[in-house]
Write a structure and sequence with these properties.
The chain is α+β, with helices and mostly antiparallel strands. Helix content is 17%, strand content 50%. The strands form two sheets. A four-stranded antiparallel β-sheet has the order 4-1-8-7. Strand 5 and strand 6 form a beta hairpin. The chain starts with a helix and ends with a strand. The relative contact order is 0.24.
Length: 137
């Protein structure tokens, strides 16, 4: 009987010693919440309406999907309220659409675990700068 008791205690200790990242994997992975995008300086297409035509390539565990953001100029903010679930990693790369030419990279973010609260990195590329507001739970 004592063998059964010690086995149960050992299993309980296993679950109480998990890191937040390990616990989230057991619970079904991570959730990336992208709240908004703020244009600090548009510059990828100064000749096109004076604004960037922004979209995002979102890659979740190797599967990529495009999401439209829309036209953004200096000082513009877009509340996107995106929620993505992933297990290993997530990447979001922002671009300025230049059909039929190749698109201009605006920068991006990459995550592989829980963040410590709201993140607000500044990304830049092709003459434009943006602030991305997100967290991972």
């Amino acid at each position: 009987m004592s063998n059964i008791t010690s086995t149960v205690v050992a299993q309980e200790q296993l679950f109480t010693n998990l890191t937040p990242e390990e616990a989230s994997i057991l619970e079904g992975g991570y959730t990336l919440n992208v709240y908004s995008l703020l244009c600090l300086a548009d510059g990828a297409d100064p000749w096109y309406k004076g604004k960037d035509d922004v979209y995002a390539k979102v890659t979740l565990d190797g599967i990529t999907t495009n999401y439209s953001v829309g036209d953004m100029g200096t000082g513009d903010a877009k509340n996107v309220a995106w929620e993505f679930n992933f297990f290993e990693y997530a990447e979001i790369s922002f671009f300025d659409s230049d059909w039929p030419d190749s698109d201009d990279a605006l920068g991006g973010i990459s995550v592989s675990g829980v963040t410590n609260g709201l993140q607000k990195p500044t990304i830049s590329g092709s003459g434009s700068r943006y602030k991305v507001f997100y967290d991972v739970a």
